[in-house]
Amino acid sequence: MNRGKFITLEGVEGVGKSTNLSYLTDYLAAANIPFVVTREPGGTPLAEEIRAMVLAPRDEPVAPLAELLMVFAARAQHIEQFIVPHLDAGTWVVSDRFTDATYAYQGCGRGIDTAAILELERLVQGAMQPDLTLYLDCPPEIGMARADARAALDRIETAGMDFMNRVRAGYLARISQYPQRFVTIDASVALPQVKAQLIAALDARIGSLL
Ligand code: TMP
């Protein structure tokens, strides 16, 4: 049996991840590929508890390092209890965010040294990396206007526009570092055009992952 593949979806707030996630899962289902969908932080009961701790608005300032360690604690649990068992069973795993988000949010956003993130990444993941990462790109002003129109903002979403611009720059730096793994989709255009880019990317990439 072939090992499953690991696909991640990334982007700044309000970029349309949920809608594009449904396009992706429709595509995998139509191709008869067995898959599960998950998210980070989260994906197991314990990791979801950590997610709630990370995202809850609170009066007490949260130390960037505490935020980083919580995200990786959730990830360690998610990898061991959910991601790896599914991949081993031949099931593809689609995750709404993964470690690129840590480099973007805690690294560029909060200003934590990349070397510290790399050390935790090695400890928690070993050599494990996504097989494909779909990055939905959009200026934060557009994304945040959409996010504002949704439900109440979580703690990270309230960090402000400068923060979100740094997060986007963090993602773009990751893409230039790992151009093979990423597909960038312009998510600032109308949804049918976003969908068309996503489907074209999947047509080009999924075959080689099978
Ligand atoms: P989302 O599910 O709405 O995308 O929310 C998850 C939030 O958590 C989002 O603001 C990004 C943030 N996040 C980090 O700061 N670091 C991480 O490593 C991950 C996976 C998410």
Bound molecules: thymidine-5'-phosphate
Question: What share of the residues does DSSP label as strand, in percent?
Answer: 5-15%
H/E element string? EHEHHEHHEHHEH
Estimate nothing, just give the exact number of structural domains.
1
The second-level CATH architecture is 3-Layer(aba) Sandwich
Give the CATH class. Alpha Beta
Radius of gyration over all CA atoms, rounded: 16 Å
| Terminal-residue CA separation | 12 Å
Low-confidence segments, ≥5 residues, pLDDT <50? none
Outline: globular
Write the CATH homologous superfamily: P-loop containing nucleotide triphosphate hydrolases
Average of the residue pLDDT scores: 95
Provide an overview of this structure.
- The protein is of the alpha/beta class.
- It has one domain (6-209): Rossmann fold.
- It contains 8 helices and 5 strands.
- It has helices at 17-30, 45-55, 64-88, 99-109, 114-125, 140-149, 161-177, 191-209, and strands spanning 6-11, 35-39, 92-96, 132-137, 182-186.
- A 5-stranded parallel sheet has the order 2-3-1-4-5, sandwiched between helices.
- Helix 1 (17-30) packs across helix 8, helix 2 packs antiparallel against helix 3 and helix 4 crosses helix 7.
- It is globular and about 50 Å long.
- Bound molecules: thymidine-5'-phosphate.
- The site of thymidine-5'-phosphate has 12 residues, from helix 4.
